[in-house]
Design goal:
Layout: E1 2-8, E2 15-21, E3 30-34, H1 42-53, E4 57-61, H2 78-90, H3 93-111, E5 117-122, H4 124-135, E6 140-144, E7 163-168, H5 176-186, E8 192-197, H6 214-232
Helix pairs in contact: 3-4
Length: 233
């Protein structure tokens, strides 16, 4: 079952919506799906639906609500891609993390004592998933092609729960030096696992559109499913 839910901010100064996909039976855990720069579009909703089919309560908060609530953009349409870049430039990432934490608290409260919550993010969401791992008590975090993680390595010692990162080797937003810095900074971290994808570019695991690379997307998603099964139950 799918619907839209409303979540209050941590500061109590407003609320925001989130797409919600509920499994047929009792959820075994919850997962917060963190959007790309294109909003909670059809691809992100499909990610939630797939997680619900696997038995998780999945929600995707609208992190751009302070800028343009409910926006959905298509990366394959240039004006919409350009608009997404504009929104990214205006986006307050610290407030985004606070909204993700509010989402974590909301679903954890709903599921009750002992419930585990994970996050999975894509592009901007991949970066935010790493930040969430360092700044909140989330139980497990997955980031796909997160941008600028090499600049966040100073926060790595705050990571207390498992993190999985999917890194396409030909990511035109994350160059080879940045990828090397990620490995140098994180390969010996006991909570972090990095998988590299030779020949793949940014966005390879999108659900729809020109960026998808089906074989690698399926492999990454299988690894994510195994990761969440191990760490969320």
């Amino acid at each position: 079952m799918t619907n839209t839910t409303t979540i209050p901010t941590l500061a109590g100064d407003g609320d925001f919506t989130a797409y919600r996909a509920t499994p047929a039976g009792t959820p075994k855990a919850a997962i917060v799906v963190i959007q790309e720069i294109f909003g909670v579009n059809a691809g992100i909703r499909r990610k939630c639906d797939t997680l619900a089919e696997a038995g998780y309560l999945a929600i995707a908060p609208d992190l751009f609500w302070r800028l343009e609530p409910g926006i959905e953009l298509d990366p394959d349409i240039k004006p919409e891609f350009d608009r997404a870049l504009e929104l990214m430039g205006q986006f307050d990432q610290d407030k985004g993390i606070a909204d993700i934490e509010a989402s974590i608290r909301a679903v954890r409260s709903e599921l009750g004592d002992g419930a585990k919550v994970g996050v999975v993010g894509y592009c901007l969401g991949g970066r935010l998933a790493f930040m969430t791992a360092a700044r909140t008590d989330v139980d497990a975090s997955v980031g796909y092609y997160g941008v600028g993680i090499d600049g966040l390595l100073g926060e790595k010692n705050a990571i207390a729960h498992p993190v999985l990162l999917h890194v396409p080797e030909e990511d035109h937003f994350v160059d080879k030096d940045a990828q090397a810095a990620m490995h140098a900074g994180l390969d010996d971290h006991p909570k972090v696992t990095i998988y590299d994808y030779a020949g793949e570019d940014h966005g390879f695991a999108t659900e729809f559109g020109e960026r998808r690379s089906d074989t690698s997307a399926k492999l990454a998603d299988e690894r994510t499913a195994e990761f969440f099964a191990e760490h969320l139950g």
